[in-house]
Amino acid sequence: MKSHHAVGSRSLRAIFAAPALLGVLTAAGLMSALLGDDIWDALSWLMLAAPIAVVAWYLWAALGKRQSARI
């Protein structure tokens, strides 16, 4: 009988690395927005936009795969 884990299963570190990085970026963006001015405002916008950009990227990729599967 086979184990639950597939051959390509990943460690917890590999699974949570990207979400943890996005969380750190978001927290740093919030802190820089609250505590800084001028260049820090622009930097905070970039850091806060990172999770949105990642979600948009994966959504776009998923929709592209769905469209190519129909053809």
- In total, how many beta strands? 0
Order of helices and strands: HH
| Amount of beta strand | under 5%
Shape: flat
Largest sheet: none
Span of the ends, CA to CA: 38 Å
Radius of gyration: 18 Å
What is the helix fraction of residues, given as a range?
Answer: over 70%
Count of the domains: 1
Descriptive report:
The chain is mostly helical and 71 residues long. The chain has one domain (12-70). It has two helices and no strands. The chain has helices at residues 12-35, 39-70. Helix 1 runs antiparallel to helix 2 (39-70). The longest helix is centred in the C-terminal third of the chain and has 32 residues, at 39-70. The N and C termini lie far apart (38 Å).
Question: What descriptive keywords fit this protein?
Answer:
71 residues, mainly alpha
Write the layout of secondary structure elements.
Elements: H1 12-35, H2 39-70
Task: Give a concise summary.
By secondary structure, this protein is mainly alpha-helical. Helices cover 79% and strands 0% of the residues.
